[in-house]
Write a structure and sequence with these properties.
- Helix content is 47%, strand content 15%.
- It is of the alpha/beta class and 246 residues long.
- The chain has a single domain, classed as Rossmann fold (3-Layer(aba) Sandwich), CATH 3.40.50.720.
- Helix 1 packs parallel to helix 2.
Length: 246
């Protein structure tokens, strides 16, 4: 796909999502950033894109709700006339010990990490069909892609991210006939979670064969590659500096 003059909807308007949005805008993509509660972050990246001559808008949406997903896509089309790319980055990452898990926590984590990607895909596909195809990029995790539930306290997160791989493959098969390519990215040590100590950050860097954290731009690069490719679909690509090898 030629990337210039396309329209992208990115769910999750902070951290890595901000860098992905800015990189796509720098390549001539019109950007819709959705957020649930991080209004300040989403509006900040929109302001930055506009200050560099790009077109962008921030839209509040709870992407665990089908109605909000449909409204988000309709807003994008009303603003820019079409949708070519969906980047599903909305996610919840939190440690909950097994004995403290509740049904509500399970539903919340599966909703934000898996259901949201399905609902957004369901909402965007008619708009992509209308323009002859598109790209959907989901986000899994290097552990789920590697089949390694390595850390305690992340049961719903791990299950959701493993489900994202299956969702990606299933959607890729279903939508290939429409010219809609569906792939996923499985990040490893890209940026440290909030609250990480210097010792924890260094420990992860040492456990990564390339010896460092990747940084958000490494994700943005792969997003661009998957948009521009015309023959990759159903793949989940680890971006982890070789972390899965240890």
């Amino acid at each position: 796909m030629q990337i210039k003059d396309r329209v992208v909807v990115i769910t999750g308007g902070k951290r890595i999502g901000c860098v992905v949005a800015a990189e796509l805008a720098s390549r001539g993509v019109d950007v819709v950033v959705s957020y649930r509660s991080s209004k300040k972050s989403a509006e900040s990246v929109v302001d930055d894109i506009r200050s560099h001559g790009g077109r962008a808008v921030a839209v509040q949406a709870d992407v665990t709700c089908a109605t909000d997903c449909n409204d988000l896509m309709s807003h994008a089309v009303a603003e820019f006339g079409r949708i070519d790319i969906l980047v599903n980055m909305a996610s919840t990452y939190r440690r909950i010990p097994f004995d403290e898990l509740t049904e509500a926590v399970w539903d919340q984590d599966l909703g934000s990490n898996l259901k949201s990607a399905y609902l957004c895909a369901l909402a965007v596909v008619p708009h992509m069909r209308a323009v002859g195809g598109g790209r959907i990029i989901n986000f899994s995790d290097w552990l789920a892609q590697s089949g390694r539930p390595r850390y305690f306290g992340f049961i719903p997160y791990y299950v959701a991210k493993a489900g994202t791989v299956a969702l990606t493959e299933s959607l890729a098969l279903e939508l290939a006939k429409d010219g809609i390519l569906v792939n996923a990215i499985a990040p490893g040590p890209i940026i440290a979670p909030s609250g990480s100590s210097e010792a924890e950050i260094e420990e992860v860097a040492k456990a990564t064969p390339l010896g460092r954290w990747g940084g958000s731009m490494e994700i943005a690069k792969v997003v661009v590659d998957l948009i521009e490719s015309d023959f990759i679909t159903g793949e989940t690509i680890r971006v982890d500096g070789g972390r899965h090898l240890n």
